[in-house]
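Two entries, shown back to back:
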Amino acid sequence: MPLQKTSIVLTAAVVATVLLGCRHLGPPTSLQKLNDQQTRGYWVFQTSCRQCHNDREDKPLQGPALMGIYQKKYLPSGAAATDERVQSTVLHGRNMMPAMGGSVNDKDMADLLAYLHTL
């Protein structure tokens, strides 16, 4: 009996661990609820990123979907999901992503990061 009980407890612990590890991404903030900076970032995204990345859908285009990018611990590259890493990737590029440093100024970058935090 004790062995069977131990087995049930172990199975329950494994199932709980798996379920907790599979976090569901929350929905993005609705566009109507964005503040001014986030709204400007939305437009930066539309003009500079949208052709390769989905923002409000969790389906990849040419590049990975960015929905929930800051809700996850790591970026698709495996790097920590931090503003510094995202900014570096945008400015300098990575793998197939071209460097956008020439087309995104500091203000646009701050606005874009603010928007990405709403996803």
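entry 2 starts here
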Amino acid sequence: MSGNDDLGSQIEYLTRALKTPTIRRCWAELADRARTDGWSHEQYLAALLERQVNDREANGTTLRINAAKFPAVKTLEDFNFDHARSVPRDVIAHLATSTWIAKGENVILLGPPGVGKTHLGIALGIKAAHHSYPVLFDTATGWAARLTEAHAAGRLPQELKRLRRYRLLIIDEIGYLPFDSDTANLFFQLIAARYEQGSILITSNMPFGRWGEVFADDVVAAALIDRLVHHAEVITITGDSYRTKTRRDLISNDQ
């Protein structure tokens, strides 16, 4: 018995030194199962390591999702494709693999309010986090405030460099508020710094033809669009607002 106790203490020490808490927690349970089922030493080792890797990947995903600053957790599994019939399911399924992020490509979701653009943006960001990509989310006005603050402090180049560690930036709700020319130029610097280097996902209620109204200048808007769409999947979503439909259905059911 004391030999087993000594072995357990040694494993406790070694797993702490190696920072493998899952192995520390489950080695004895799996050892009992291995003896009962007649596993080989290799099968037992593989089972232990698989448990550790799975837990570590799950913890890493949770950390990346928290660090992304999503306003809520939205998944593709929860998305109502039956309402948003114009959304191409096959294209979204491909984007869910996150292979476009490895290539530094972009995704642009265009459409009126309430058709699910933000939901899809967050859901694809969460898929990216599951595929081990660092993600950062903010609204267009939030990004404007971040860039303006960095520029005013004289550290815009450092901020743009820092943002490169995020393989995916999500800019939500372009078009809801117009920007002045200074802010438009800051957005251009952000897009230019990411060009073919890191991915951007944008949602907008404005078609490209009206981005000049958003960025105070048709030339700046054209330069932004040119860099964004060069390597991009552009999805235009049509239809009625899901929120408005839900409200109408509630009112109808109450009557």
